[in-house]
Amino acid sequence: MSFAFGVVLFALGILVSVSLHEAGHMLTAKAFGMKVTRYFVGFGPTIFSFKRGETEYGLKGIPLGGFCKIVGMTPQDDDVEPGDEKRAMWRYPVWKRTIVMSAGSVTHFGLAIFAAWLAAMTFGLPNPDFPRDEQQIRAEPAVIAIQDCVLPDTTFRECTESDAASPAGAAGLQNGDRITSINGTPINNYGELLTTLRATTPGSTAAIGYERDGQPGTTTTTLATTKRPPIDNPDGPVTEVSALGVGLVLSTPGLVSYGPVEAVGATSTFIGDMAVATAQALQRLPEKIPALWNAIVGGERDIDTPISVVGASVLGGEAVANNAWEIFIMLFISLNFFIGVFNLLPLLPLDGGHIAIAWFERARSWLYARLRRPDPGRVDYFKLMPFTYVVILIGGVFTLLTITADVVNPITLFPK
């Protein structure tokens, strides 16, 4: 029940975000005097609508986004009624059109920033000092968390009765203990713990030195046998190795909370890091298509592959079902920021495409004026339609791939 609630709640959050995106276009257009004739949430058949002033507002039956109609977005539009010629959007200065067309993305950025600021003051934002690469993790003190069992291979799943119990748990070790030695070999960090275990015969008895609440202790246990790749080569051949049945407890917290003032700076840093990550993700999109197709035909789903609104909603449902509201909010922040950036790409029919054309016209007019040549006028959008259709086709295929992968082989954050 909580999973379904989370899915619906996240999908509703996306719908509200997109509706506010369109509201950003509408409100800025109206503020500049442009004529807005329609503002609707959803697509398809109209459920209800009402007219206030010159604008019709309403709700449609398919809750997938929304739209607003601004009269005369391009010189080729034929929706300008007699007497409204001066209110056609394309006749306004380029800076006003830029504000109107970018208002949707600005709304997404605003939602992401506000949600991140609230997160910074509640459950916290990702700690910039949190160890992220393998070298940093291995340098951490060997403070352990007792696992329920030792899985026989590299597969991540829940324990079964056939799986070996944790040797550490059987030896009386507890969560938060720090391993200090194995068979007399000093252990200074987690990397040395792994290295020493790999050098120990699987199934042998080992003497474990540890520290608990500042007090030293020793115990013995029979090490389990599992299969793992080499420590320095995760893609290398899998061999039988010793296992203690423990995980690492990081000394650095993953999330850090702030006061209202400090949260402003933390939010700025977080959003800056997200901007870099989003730019890198956009660059990697083409190379992820084969990985999506591989997931559809039965291969393992790469967690780094793109997800659709469907996949994001499912992850939101998982987060709620596991009471991980911080993940739910982070998904909401990330998705809004990504949508905001994506819509500014200089491609039609995206908002960024209209902005790019407006500034191209302005630059071309300036150049022709300096060359004392006649102004070439406005760009003919009809000539750009083939390129627009290509973008729509590519976007449609990519969306279909992501939705299909999210249905047949979804990304999961909580292994079942």
TrEMBL record:
Annotated Gene3D superfamilies: 2.30.42.10
Domain PDZ, residue spans: 162-202
Keyword Metal-binding assigned: no
Membrane-spanning residues: 99-125, 387-408
Compartments reported by the entry: Membrane
Coiled-coil ranges per UniProt: none
GO molecular function: metallopeptidase activity
Domain Peptidase M50 intervals: 10-364
The organism's place on the tree of life at top rank: Bacteria
Keyword Zinc: yes
InterPro entries cross-referenced by the UniProt entry: PDZ_6, PDZ_sf, Pept_M50_Zn, Peptidase_M50
A Pfam family assignment: PDZ_6
Main localization category: membrane
Membrane topology summary: Multi-pass membrane protein
Ranges for region Disordered: 210-236
Record keywords, A-Z: Hydrolase, Membrane, Metalloprotease, Protease, Transmembrane, Transmembrane helix, Zinc
Cofactor field: Zn(2+)
Annotated PANTHER family: MEMBRANE METALLOPROTEASE ARASP2, CHLOROPLASTIC-RELATED (PTHR42837:SF2), REGULATOR OF SIGMA-E PROTEASE RSEP (PTHR42837)
Family: Belongs to the peptidase M50B family.
Name recorded for this polypeptide: Zinc metalloprotease Rip1
Organism per entry: Micromonospora lutea
